[in-house]
Amino acid sequence: MKLSTHETLERGYLVEAEVEKNEEIIASERDRLGRFVLASNDKTLGGEMMLQHYKGQNAVEKGFRFLKDKSFRVAEVYLKKEERIDALSMIMVLALLIYSIAEWMLRKRLKETGQTVLNLLGKPTATPTMKWIFQVLRNINEAIIELKGTIHREIINIDAEQERIIKLFGPKCQNYYS
Q1: First to last CA, the chain
Q2: Among 110, 174, 93, 101, which Cα is nearest to 140's?
Q3: Is 74:44 a contact under the CB 8 Å cutoff?
Q4: What single DSSP character describes residue 71?
Q5: Cβ distance 97 to 162 under 8 Å?
Q6: Contacts of 63 (CB under 8 A, 6+ apart)
Q7: Rounded distance, CA 44 to CA 31, Å?
Q8: What does DSSP say about strands 141-147 and 150-156: parallel, antiparallel, or unpaired?
Q9: Per-residue pLDDT tens over the stretch 6-38
Q10: pLDDT tens digits for range 33-46
Q11: What residue ranges do the domains of the chain occupy?
Q12: How far apart are CA 157 and CA 141, in angstroms?
C-alpha cells in the first residue's frame, strides 16, 4: 500500500518483559570490580584532596615512560651488581626530576609572558613537553676553532625560535648558549 503525500506512517512498538535480579551474577561482578581504597596517615587530608594526590601520580608514571622511551637513543644498559643498579636508578630519578622541573618552569614562563611555542604540527602551544623542546634544540652545536694559539668558541645552528625558547629558561641557561 502506497501512502499519499498527506499521509504519514506511524509505527509503534510495545515491549513486555519481566526483570529478575540474579544476585549471583551481581555478587560476581562486584567482586570482579573490587574496591578503590585510598589511605593516608594525614588525618587533615580530605577525600577529594587525597584523590587529587593519587591522580597526580599519573605525572610520575608519565615520567618513567619518558625514561624508558627509545626515542632518546640511549643505549641499553645491563647491570648485575645491586649497588650499580641502585646508582643508575638514582641517576634516572634525578634526570626525571630535572626534566619535570624544566618542563614546569618553561610552561610557567610561557604562561607568565603569554607566549607560546610551536608544536609538532606547527601550531602554537603553551604546554609543550620537554621531549618536544629537546627535539627543537637538538641541532644546536658548539664550534671550537683554534687559530694562532687562540681558542674561539661559537654556538652554531641556532635560530630565532631556539634562542627565544632558551631565553624562557632564564640567564643561567642562556650562559650555556652564548
Answers
A1: 86
A2: 174
A3: no
A4: G
A5: no
A6: 96, 99, 100
A7: 31
A8: antiparallel
A9: 777 777 777 788 888 999 988 888 877 766 677
A10: 766 677 778 888 88
A11: 20-68, 72-178
A12: 6
Could you tell me which residues come within 8 angstroms of residue 9 by beta carbon, excluding any fewer than 6 positions away?
A: 3
What stretches in the chain show pLDDT beneath 70?
Answer: 1-3, 34-36, 60, 64, 66-67, 70-75
Identify the residue whose cell numbers are 668558541. Answer: 153
What letter represents residue 177's amino acid? Y
Q: Which of 102, 82, 100 is nearest to 92 (CA)?
A: 100
Backbone angles phi, psi at 123, to 5 degrees: -100, 145
Please give the biggest Cα pair distance in the chain. 103
Beta bridge partners of 143: 154
